[in-house]
Specification:
CATH class: Mainly Beta
Order of helices and strands: EEHEEEEHEEEE
Distance between the termini: 27 Å
Largest sheet: 7 strands, mixed
Helix content: 10-25%
Length: 118
């Protein structure tokens, strides 16, 4: 189990936190402290790399763990290299509804915001 300093972390906005907590409640996980939000990066998408998110309860040896606003966020080491100082956000506006990543490391992203390149 590794932990990175808080100035190099993954963050979550207040709005995204609310939606994550709602989804955990809907899945029946809100009272289980073993579950957390796992974020990662996989190859694919129109810009080359795509984000992934899920709830998980298994921490792997090289995982990086963070907590922001009371939400535990875990990522694998390789994904963290792409996600350092990224903030998970949520939009429910007219231009689209869903989670998106405000990633300062991305040199470009596709129009839908689901993939990026560095």
């Amino acid at each position: 189990m590794s932990t990175i300093a808080t100035d190099n972390a993954i963050f979550i906005s207040d709005k995204a936190k609310g939606k994550v907590l709602d989804l955990m409640k809907d899945a029946g996980l809100e009272n289980d402290p073993n579950y957390f939000l796992r974020v990662g990066v996989v190859g694919g998408g129109c810009s080359g790399l795509s984000y992934k998110m899920d709830f998980d309860n298994e921490v792997k040896p090289m995982d990086q763990q963070f907590e922001d606003k009371g939400v535990k966020i875990v990522t694998d080491l390789k994904s963290f290299l792409y996600l350092v100082n990224t903030e998970l956000e949520f939009s429910d506006g007219l231009n689209g509804k869903g989670f998106y990543f405000n990633n300062p490391n991305a040199s470009r992203s596709c129009g839908c915001g689901e993939s990026f390149a560095v």
